[in-house]
Write a structure and sequence with these properties.
Peptide Methionine Sulfoxide Reductase, Chain A; 6-stranded mixed β-sheet; 25% strand; alpha+beta; 5 helices
């Protein structure tokens, strides 16, 4: 059996439930997991993230096969899933934990994300607020958040 080279991508685009489901079903995506990233704490709960004391964002961590789906495609999907011009919110979800952010794991990912952001900006009337930051602290979210929509037979959220 051929061994697969896997890579990791991580995005914050508002509430992680719908974002996870959108990525989970893409061919080439091996697994998805929701969690909290980019903050100043090594552990935390959903409640603590929502209260704002951790500095974390709700994110989807994606393991993918780059031979089946390119990182650049994942970034394009990320931009299609939310309004990247909103600052610290998506629709009715308001707060720092809902900011638009791409966490990169390599310089190649960073460059791809920056190039696609520039292309996306040309399509927008407002300035894109999406941040691009090196991946750092990540905390897996509680089990009840994992595959939340799938467990309920839903394919999307209210947004």
């Amino acid at each position: 059996m051929k061994k697969t080279n896997m890579e990791i991508a991580m995005f914050g685009a508002g509430c992680f439930w719908g974002v996870e489901e959108a990525f989970r079903v893409l061919p080439g995506v091996i697994s998805t997991e929701v969690g909290y990233a980019g903050g100043n704490k090594n552990k935390g709960t959903y409640q603590e993230v929502c209260e704002g004391g951790t500095g974390h964002t709700e994110v989807v961590r994606i393991v993918f096969d780059p031979e089946k789906i390119k990182y650049s495609k994942l970034v394009e999907v990320f931009f299609s899933l939310h309004d990247p011009t909103q600052i610290n919110r998506q629709g009715v979800d308001i707060g720092y934990q809902y900011r638009s952010i791409i966490f990169y794991f390599s310089e190649e990912q960073k460059k791809n994300a920056e190039d696609i952001l520039k292309k996306e900006q040309k399509k927008q009337k407002k300035t894109i607020a999406t941040l691009i930051e090196k991946a750092s602290t990540y905390i897996k979210a509680e089990d009840y958040h994992q595959k939340y929509l799938l467990k309920r037979g839903q394919t999307s959220c209210h947004i």
